[in-house]
Amino acid sequence: xxxxxxxxxxxxxxxxxxxxxxxxxxxxxxxxxxxxxxxxxxxxxxxxxxxxxxxxxxxxxxxxxxxxxxxxxxxxxxxxxxxxxxxxxxxxxxxxxxxxxxxxxxxxxxxxxxxxxxxxxxxxxxxxxxxxxxxxxxxxxxxxxxxxxxxxxxxxxxxxxxxxxxxxxxxxxxxxxxxxxxxxxxxxxxxxxxxxxxxxxxxxxxxxxxxxxxxxxxxxxxxxxxxxxxxxxxxxxxxxxxxxxxxxxxxxxxxxxxxxxxxxxxxxxxxxxxxxxxxxxxxxxxxxxxxxxxxxxxxxxxxxxxxxxxxxxxxxxxxxxxxxxxx
Length: 327
Fold this sequence. Notes:
By secondary structure, this protein is of the alpha/beta class. The protein is 33% helix and 14% strand. The protein has a seven-stranded parallel β-sheet with strand order 8-7-6-9-10-11-12, with helices on both faces. Strand 3 (48-51), helix 3 and strand 4 (70-73) form a beta-alpha-beta unit. The two termini are 15 Å apart.
């Protein structure tokens, strides 16, 4: 008998067909977001779950699923899964790193450029029929070329963002849990390691690219925003919760920083409506990895992980190698 799995959200039909070659598959192509009780009900009796960031595998959820052997996220992040609890329960956890690095870095630049040059603000103004004449001070933004880019979180995506800054003749500074090797710094447009406070005070454009953890909750709050230049921009493509959204709304409203570009939010998709009343913020709905090729690569990587996990092998992207596999 084939192992049984749940595909918790809608996904490409060809990925479902591929998984059906290996498993008994229950799908959710209507793309409902499951409540905790529904997630337990749908996952009960399953050997594996093909998950997204929408499904929260907490200790109580994992404890209610004794047959479960693997949760394979179609995402590079995995803060929706209690990895320690999964390890204790004998559940393998995987993610989909690397396949989205370059696409996400592309989008980070799109968001940076739109934020610095007030693209969405000026488009809304134009669409509202307000464009009557050219003005010398119309929508003055901030230069990107020749400016200082500060990256907090210099993993693979952060390094890809830094490499793209070469063509803009930018000075790159970064803060990370640990300093990169000299070789990697050189490849990242000669990026220079600095303390977080120095980065916030110095950078013209601050880019957040680190993973979320409880220890990093509200890493950027009112005090950190107050350190930034009044002319600076903040771009968050990392995770909601890293920024205190209420503090950011206040800083943007009071023009303590010039603008922000946000692809992620606290409590998304139920984000703070205070952002909607601001003209100096660019808002996108968590789409940094959203190209057809990249999302397919993510889905197939999650499928690879699930096939390996339930086929007796070790998934390439296993996050908890100390897990004791269930028979």
